[in-house]
Design a protein that fits this description.
heterodimer, A: 7-stranded mixed beta sheet, two-stranded antiparallel sheet, 11 helices, 9 strands, B: mainly alpha, 55% helix, 0% strand, mitochondrion (chain B), metal-binding (chain B), ubiquinone biosynthesis (chain B)
Chain lengths: 386, 271
């Protein structure tokens, strides 16, 4: 799956025609400021009736057709101050969560990452940093091991290595161009010049070919989608067999005292911060409301796992449990079905285990690991096994 | 590998249309009330006292740090101005013209002004001088932020009217929109309306003035502004939309405002 084989429908939004598109590649048309509208026109037929169905937009109920547009407007208006607001709202702790996600991911050199709803690029930057520092450490160790390196070895240590060597690559995909623009500017400021691609795309209809990526992440983005099941199908499609799906999202806080403090903080303080720092109360009101809505929407879907494919593809199931956080420093895991089972697997992330199963899954392997960080954030990691 | 930059036109017009806000379009009659739960008017965001206090402190600090953040000045005014708005509203009600303004709720925007007619008025008339002021200072009445945090519909209108009359006040007082002119108008407004935001602006505004302008302010402009603010009639009680043809001098006499002691030419908007 080297670079030559990649047929990403990588489309620069400046209006160049989509190049080297696979069969399921995007046909996002050129010159439109609202790419998602064109993506919507290629959705499946039942979407015509979808406008009559309604979905949640924060605490409001809106027709499904409207949600994407409203979310787009929210992020368009917050894009410039997005990172500052993240720091202000979480007191900088969001950096720890994202670092934890990377540690969970533990990418090896040569991993290809798709960062959906990646926006300003936090996860991708960390990914590149992680892999490159691993690589640098490995090379240092190698160099130290060599007593008298030959000229060839010295020359190799300067360059990127032989062509076709494992170079890690991250693709940041987001539906919102303003967020990507901010991300590109940050990449320039932080000197991430290679290994990054920026693609405008809809998570429910990704502009990539099948079986492209090793890791798919969606950090704090899945709750903004209208059809999470479609996004999961797409994730399953673009992931290679054995690829991983990681989702970083807010979860509920079950401790009643903490939960009251958390609610007060969310609803009283965050919109005020949004108004003062970004001049936008309503967008941050939407954000805190969508956090409250999220677990209801998604836990059922993730509990069903990746959808059943055709006859050749076997069912990949996932177990997902709600993970309440008990207190600041200790974490207690409560599951409804497989308590001992899941606890045992927690220490060995992402190794296939034949004993991993849920009651519906007969004879297929699946594995899920959960990593928990304080203050009510959970990371669900799913391996797809073929 | 580049993301297109949104055309500047779209972005500027989006900001200008920002007055429509999330609540959507206002009715042509001006002030419509939104049907949302707890929302008393279009653009209203209900807040509790804790949030108002936080907003007041936050917006005050943001406005001090960057005085060009007009939205922060606006939020500061809304969250701190309840008592002053009550007083203003009562003052408006006590005059027949003010009473009719409160009833009819007119809005001053480019779409409601008849620009061709106003530009054909004679020099020295209110309409002509107002248009000249808008053109010379490159401002528009549509750039005023909407009221969001006032929890009474009538008071919210009074606040909105105050914002829209601000430019007319510049015209009446003959002050340009540079820092010195703005501070002079703020002193007038502080004396007349008693809004805490005006008082704070009047107190902190001079800190950003150069020494020469500070001297002008303290020597002649400031005392003039304060004196006139205190003794003039309520500027919000004038139905300006019906008086475009009236001459500035007669309007000043009616309001008991002395003409400015200095004629400040339109300088650039830096201190």
């Amino acid at each position: 799956m080297a670079a030559a084989g990649v047929s990403l429908a990588f489309r620069a939004v400046r209006g160049l025609p989509a190049s080297a598109v696979g069969q399921r590649g995007a046909r996002l048309s050129t010159g439109s400021a609202r790419g998602f509208r064109h993506a919507a026109s290629f959705r499946r037929e039942h979407d015509a009736a979808a406008d009559e169905k309604s979905t949640h937009f924060g605490f409001q109920t809106v027709p499904e057709g409207q949600k994407a547009e409203r979310v787009y407007k929210v992020f368009e208006s917050v894009a410039q101050k997005y990172d500052i607001m993240n720091d202000a709202m979480s007191l900088g702790i969001h950096r720890l969560w994202k670092d934890t996600l990377l540690r969970t991911m533990n990418p090896l050199p040569g991993t290809r990452l798709l960062d959906v709803a990646g926006g300003t690029g936090d996860i991708s930057f960390r990914f590149l940093e992680y892999v490159r520092s691993q690589e640098a450490r490995r090379r240092r160790r190698e160099a130290q091991a060599l007593q008298t390196p030959s000229w060839q070895e010295i020359a190799n240590s300067y360059g990127p290595g032989a062509p076709g060597s494992k170079e890690c690559r991250a693709v940041v995909c987001d539906i919102n161009k303003d967020m990507l623009k901010v991300g590109q500017q940050r990449a320039k400021d932080l000197y991430y010049t290679t290994g990054l691609s920026w693609v405008v795309g809809d998570a429910e209809e990704l502009p990539f070919d099948d079986d492209q990526f090793d890791v798919y992440t969606i950090a704090f983005g899945i709750r903004n989608l209208t059809h999470i099941d479609k996004a999961l199908e797409e994730a399953y499609r673009v992931l290679k067999p054995g690829g991983r799906f990681l989702c970083l999202e807010f979860s509920h806080v079950s401790n009643p005292l903490l939960s009251r403090i958390y609610d007060a903080y969310s609803f009283q303080l965050i919109p005020v911060l949004g108004e003062v720092i970004a001049g936008d109360w309503k967008s941050y009101q939407y954000l805190v409301e969508s956090i409250r809505r999220f677990p209801d929407q998604v836990s059922a879907l993730l509990g069903q796992g990746f959808p059943i494919g055709g006859a050749e593809k076997e069912m990949k199931t996932v177990t997902m449990c709600k993970v309440p956080v008990r207190s600041k420093y200790t974490v207690q895991l409560e599951t409804d079905l497989f308590s001992s089972h899941i606890r045992a697997q927690n220490e060995t992330p992402c190794l296939p285990s034949s004993s991993a199963a849920n009651s519906r899954d007969v004879g297929h392997t699946c594995f899920t690991s959960f990593h928990f960080v304080p203050y009510g954030y959970c990371i669900a990691q799913v391996c797809s096994q073929l | 590998m580049s993301v297109v930059f949104l055309p500047r036109v779209l972005r500027i017009s989006a900001r200008a249309l920002g007055t429509a806000g999330w609540a959507g379009h206002r009715g042509c009659s001006g002030w419509t009330s939104d049907g949302g739960p707890g929302h008393l008017y279009g653009g209203h965001i209900p807040t509790n006292p804790v949030q108002k206090a936080l907003l007041a402190v936050g917006s005050g600090m943001a406005a001090l740090q960057n005085p060009y953040r007009h939205d922060m000045v606006a939020v500061l005014g809304e969250t701190t101005g309840h008592l002053a708005l009550l007083r203003l509203r009562d003052r408006m009600k006590s005059s027949p013209e003010g009473h009719s303004i409160l009833k009819e709720r007119p809005r001053i925007r480019l779409s409601t002004l008849d620009l061709t007619e106003m530009s054909s008025l004679p020099d020295g008339s209110l309409g002509r001088e107002y248009l000249r002021f808008l053109k010379e200072n490159r401002v528009t009445p549509d750039s005023r932020a909407d009221v969001k945090f006032v929890d009474d519909e009538e008071l919210a209108y009074v606040m909105q009217r105050y914002r829209e009359v601000h430019d007319l006040l510049h015209t009446l007082l003959g002050m340009p929109t540079n820092m010195l002119g703005e501070v002079a108008v703020k002193w007038f407004e502080a004396a007349q309306t008693g809004l805490p935001m005006c008082i704070l602006g009047a107190a902190f505004g001079p800190l950003r003035l150069s020494a020469r302008r500070l001297q002008l302010l303290t020597a002649s402009l400031g005392p003039w502004a304060l004196r006139n603010g205190r003794r003039s009639n309520c500027v919000l009680s004038i139905y300006y939309e019906h008086r475009w043809g009236q001459s500035l001098t007669s309007l000043r006499e009616e309001l008991c405002i002395e003409p400015p002691p200095l004629s400040l030419s339109t300088l650039r908007k830096t201190t």
